[in-house]
């Protein structure tokens, strides 16, 4: 059965959900929330437990909270690890990617250059060396844990793609393991298909920021 | 085997980990990190993947990222749900309690009154009616999902206890289901034992805030 994702017409907090559905090979369509009345309607229908997007309608469930939704689809796609130790490591590293990624979520909403300058001073020097080292210790196979794709990989993929696009690929040069990881990820068929599809939204721009603010305020 | 929690001498991000260990009946001791050299030693020993606390040493693992650690112990205590639907609902509601709770984490660090005033205007009117309603729909049995204790309950317990202590029990009066929930939680033997033990830290005060800042800076 296919899923329906309701979110603004951008990446934001829905991107990890999209990546997890794509990697788990769950087909989905998108409803872009571009007008306030659409958002209000979802709330009135009781589909948003905490009044927030993203929402995924799937098999009668109203899935909210992006990390829970990502874990739900990751479980379906067997992306949470094969044993207790892998499960633990994947959960910890995924949470780390969320902290890392959170610095980029306000891109455009708290300035464009400001957000990137802040990221360059804080999260990039903090997290990239750690993930580079973990990738190396895991055997330079392009995965953070074990020898196959996991939710932790999807988390790092999201933020690596963001860095590559917003700051340029040179930003990743000091981290060859992360560069190799990104190459491996991009060669994954399900991920490659998603990234070149219309489902992949564009980076935040002024128009998008204004649209989100109009829906929310 | 018993666990060792390393954290500052307060509740902070470790509290949900303590609650999950207590509820899962995993014995633990605590090392209070009150001096910079203790924190630096843990980093040098490679025990903090992302250079952050809390850390739990348990069965040879260095558990970090508080939500992952809480889930790990919740799994051991069978607190993550009995079937796929329960697991999903518990994960979503737990994430909601984390968003709710995050407004109280800066208590003392971003002012005392300021943090509470902000919570009264934002998260309390947003989340308490939702959890009150979920508790009612679940049969007013003092649990958010199903008929037994879950990680979602522990998440709501943490924030309800905080509200009761910092804002007074009257703050919960408009939410009788939450009041009943809190009563049920406090009558849980494992939780009651923890709350009256020395393991339960005190609320943030100026001394604690200064101590944490000294360790971190």
From TrEMBL, chains A, B:
GO terms for biological process: glutathione metabolic process. GO terms for molecular function: glutathione transferase activity. Residues 83-212 form the GST C-terminal domain. InterPro entries: Glutathione-S-Trfase_C-like (IPR010987), Glutathione-S-Trfase_C_sf (IPR036282), Glutathione_S-Trfase (IPR040079), Glutathione_S-Trfase_N (IPR004045), GST_C (IPR004046), GST_superfamily (IPR050213), Thioredoxin-like_sf (IPR036249). SUPFAM superfamilies: GST C-terminal domain-like (SSF47616), Thioredoxin-like (SSF52833). Residues 1-81 form the GST N-terminal domain. It comes from the Eukaryota. It holds the Pfam family GST_C_3. PANTHER family: GLUTATHIONE S-TRANSFERASE, GLUTATHIONE TRANSFERASE. This is Uncharacterized protein. It comes from Brachionus calyciflorus.
């Amino acid at each position: 059965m296919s899923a329906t994702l309701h979110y603004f017409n951008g990446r934001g907090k829905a991107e990890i959900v999209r990546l997890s559905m794509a990697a788990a090979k769950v087909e989905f369509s998108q409803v872009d929330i571009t007008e306030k009345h659409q958002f209000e309607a979802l709330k009135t229908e009781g589909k948003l437990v905490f009044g927030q997007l993203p929402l995924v309608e799937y098999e009668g469930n109203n899935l909210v909270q992006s990390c829970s939704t990502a874990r739900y689809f990751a479980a379906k796609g067997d992306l949470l690890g094969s044993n207790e130790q892998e499960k633990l490591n994947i959960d910890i590293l995924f949470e780390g990617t969320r902290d890392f990624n959170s610095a980029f979520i306000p891109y455009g909403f708290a300035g464009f250059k400001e957000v990137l300058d802040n990221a360059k001073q804080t999260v990039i020097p903090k997290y990239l060396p750690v993930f580079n080292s973990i990738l190396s210790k895991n055997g330079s196979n392009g995965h953070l844990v074990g020898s196959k794709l996991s939710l932790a990989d999807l988390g790092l993929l999201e933020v690596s793609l963001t860095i590559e696009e917003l700051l340029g690929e040179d930003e990743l040069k000091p981290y060859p393991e992360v560069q190799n990881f990104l190459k491996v990820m991009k060669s994954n068929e399900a991920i490659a298909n998603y990234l070149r599809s219309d489902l992949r939204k564009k980076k935040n721009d002024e128009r998008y920021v204004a649209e989100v603010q109009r829906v929310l305020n």
